[in-house]
Design goal:
Elements: H1 8-16, H2 20-26, H3 31-36, H4 42-62, H5 67-103
Length: 104
């Protein structure tokens, strides 16, 4: 849900039709945060934690890390995350453009 944002496949038919969005609007917390975390499961944290543990073990097993190499690793991981997010936004933009063109 965090990547999809207010995706209609969940937000439209389930939250609005079943009246769950009214319940979200009544609560004192931010509606945006409540909708984004509506389908949050702890399994996702476990997968992220497992990846971090494996990456840490691999870094220790390889050895020979200098501060420059660690900085380079941080830059590579950050740029990969932003590149993936950018590709997803570009893909969604292209698909919505094709969809609007197809509907005309």
């Amino acid at each position: 849900m965090v990547i999809a944002g207010f995706d209609y496949s969940y937000f439209g038919p389930n939250m609005v039709r079943l009246g769950e969005f009214d319940r979200v609007l009544i609560r004192p917390a931010s509606a945006f945060v409540q909708v984004l975390t509506a389908q949050f499961t702890l399994k996702r944290l476990g997968r992220i934690g497992q990846g971090v543990i494996v990456l840490g073990w691999a870094l220790i097993a390889l050895g020979g890390w200098t501060p420059l190499k660690l900085a380079y690793l941080a830059i590579i991981i950050t740029s990969a995350a932003f590149s993936l997010a950018g590709c997803l936004f570009l893909d969604r933009g292209c698909r919505s453009g094709w969809w609007n063109q197809w509907r005309r």
